[in-house]
User: Fold this.
Amino acid sequence: MSHYSLIDIPFNLRHTCWFCGEPSFDLLSFPKSSHQVRQITHQPIELPACKECLALPSAGVSESIWSFRDQIKHALMNKYAKHLGIGLQWTKEELEASEFHGAILEGFGKSAWPMYEIAKERVEYTGWDLAVDGEPLDGYDESCGYEFNGVRYLSIQACIEYHVKAMSLDLVLLETLIEIVGSERFAYALRIAELNRDVSYKERLTIIDEIKNQEQDKDDLRELNEAEKLSATLPLVAVVMDEATAQPEAIEWAITHSCTTLESLIEQEDAFFDAFEHLGGPTAFALFDGLQWYLVARRDAVWCEESDPNDEFWR
Assistant:
């Protein structure tokens, strides 16, 4: 493929797979077919890859070499899920202290941690920054995929399926827990699934109901705290300026909504008028106008200290 450009390769990495760090004496052409060139976000390239990464399956056409790398990593994680699962379920010290009996089990005790470390290094290997003839290759999108514990997955579902396979977890339980608590609390959901590996249908429903109730209780408490915060009346006073008067209720609204500048007030203008529409248009506008002049005045730190009787409530 003569129109494909070979990436710049550091001398000490000239025989290293860019995907997993294993020894490499082959090149991967990306995209695989020349008719796919128009579908990628950067120029077509060639880069070092080991025989295993070259042979790993990938789904569809990737828009960049980085999204293709994510697919390769996903395939590696699936292939070596059991090896990687050793590090998720054991520590090196626990394996060394365990008394395995029999030739097979003793062999596992000795080789398990090295197998895990090799698989982990390959999955976490990031390669070097890509460039062609000294020019960096553009097109990397950090927002794609899902990252957990420093490892990048194709998606949240791929992350779930990997941990289910690696740790012998209940797929339905972990999927449902993530739906309830959210992907940002993956570690929490994973811990619950880990503690409940072998569950019956009835036990799974009980766990799910319990977590739902806990989350609902948290939401209810959060809403109550927010309502109490909004309903609390600060001992504010009106601020009379040459241009207008800022009324206490408008100032309190600004403080409780972290509306500290004129710019932020303009951004929240609709919310302000929604909050005071029950007073009628002219009154709401007067409150808004007074608050605008007040926030303009508060740009001056000396004025705030010497002339704003409500200054302490902004700190």
